[in-house]
Amino acid sequence: MKENMKKLDSKENQPTSQLIDKRIAELGDWRGETLSKIRKLIKEADPDVVEEWKWRGVPVWSHEGIICTGESYKAVVKLTFAKGAALKDPAKLFNSSLEGNTRRAIDIHEGEKIDANAFKGLIVAAIALNTSGKKGKTKASEAGAPKFSSALN
User: Fold this and answer.
1) Which end of the chain is less packed: N or C, by CB atoms within 10 Å?
2) N- to C-terminal Cα distance for the chain?
3) Pick among 3.65.10.10, 3.90.1150.200, 2.40.40.10, 3.20.20.190: CATH of 2-142
4) Could you tell me the pTM of the whole model?
């Protein structure tokens, strides 16, 4: 995350973390709360995660490549994993973009909860895949989700 502190968005000349904070505050409803909780879980799973601001306002979390994006729509917060199709998902969190060859997404609707342990496991597996240099499944991604103790409530 130390790299993130220095990274500035060229348009708004603000640190990326502040742009994401601003987006969460602007949403001001369950979507902002959900995005904030997801962001916290990502940082817990990977304290060295790099936050980026891409595609005209999409929060992106990276570690030697994109882990996932956090898009917000009227009825859903969508977390798209760049290489999700290569990750084991024993908890069946992926519920969107299932037909693609590369990406997978998790759509969270108002009132829905996500298994925090399984989500962190996907983050760790995505990082393992990014750092392995391989395009296919890695032993880390096939191993399943590591056990974590926090929950998204």
Assistant:
1) C
2) 25
3) 3.90.1150.200
4) 0.78
Kindly report, residue by residue over 54-99, the tens digit of the pLDDT: 987 899 999 999 999 999 999 999 999 999 999 999 999 999 999 8
Indicate the domain borders of the chain. Answer: 2-142
Residue type, 18: Q
